[in-house]
Amino acid sequence: MNPFVPQKAPYKVNVQAGESYYWCSCGQSKSQPFCDGSHKGSEFVPMKFDATETKEVYFCGCKNSLNKPFCDGAHNKLP
Ligand code: FES
After folding, report:
1. Is residue 72 part of a domain?
2. C-alpha to C-alpha distance for 18 and 6, rounded to whole angstroms
3. CA of 42: how far to CAs of 3, 46, 54, 67, 68, in Å?
4. Is the CB of 29 under 6 A from ligand 1?
5. At 54, phi and psi to the nearest 5?
6. pLDDT tens digits, 6-54
7. Is 59 part of a structural domain of the chain?
8. Structural domain containing residue 53
9. Is any ligand 1 atom within 6 A of the Cβ of residue 21?
10. Are the CB atoms for 39 and 25 separated by under 8 Å?
11. Nearest to 23 by CA among 55, 67, 53
C-alpha cells in the first residue's frame, strides 16, 4: 500500500541535539511531519530519528523518499 501524500514538499524543522523524533511514514498524521498515532491498524510504523546535533533538517513530506525520514527530492517525480 502506498502512503498518503500530505504535501509534495519537505517539512523544515529545527531539531534539537539529544531529542528523538518520530517521523510519520503513513502520511495520515495531523501533526506532520511527525506521528500522531493515526497509523494504527495499518502496515505503517513511524521512523525514529535521534538528533545528534541542533540543526535545520528537511523531513520528507510526500513519504516517498528513498532516504527516509529526509527529503530526497522524490516529491518532484510524483504524478
Ligand atoms: S501517524 Fe503516520 S506513522 Fe504514525
Report:
1. yes
2. 27
3. 10, 11, 32, 22, 18
4. yes
5. -85, 115
6. 999 999 999 999 999 999 999 999 999 999 999 999 999 999 999 999 9
7. yes
8. 17-79
9. no
10. yes
11. 67
